[in-house]
Amino acid sequence: MKDKCEKQQMDRSLFDQKCVTCGTWMVSTEKKVNDVTTITYSCPECGLTYTVDK
After folding, report:
1. What is the pLDDT of residues 3-42, one digit of tens each?
2. The overall pTM is greater than 0.85
3. Which domain of life is it from (predicted)?
4. Structural domain includes residue 6
5. Which of 41, 10, 38, 11 lies closest to 25 in space, CA to CA?
6. Which residues pair with 7 in a beta bridge?
7. Taking CA 6 as the corner, what is the angle to CA 3 and CA 9, rounded to the nearest 5 degrees?
């Protein structure tokens, strides 16, 4: 169970900065509600958007 927790805390910033579809740099916004930080990544070129909870 400890391994699963360590994987969730991995720094994903190196993987999430470029769009997987077109390779354009993603724009990220962070929103913190209580103890959960939600990061939304959006691509200005192709419109791909996804959200990650931290």
Report:
1. 444 444 555 555 558 888 898 999 989 999 999 999 999 9
2. no
3. Archaea
4. no
5. 41
6. none
7. 155
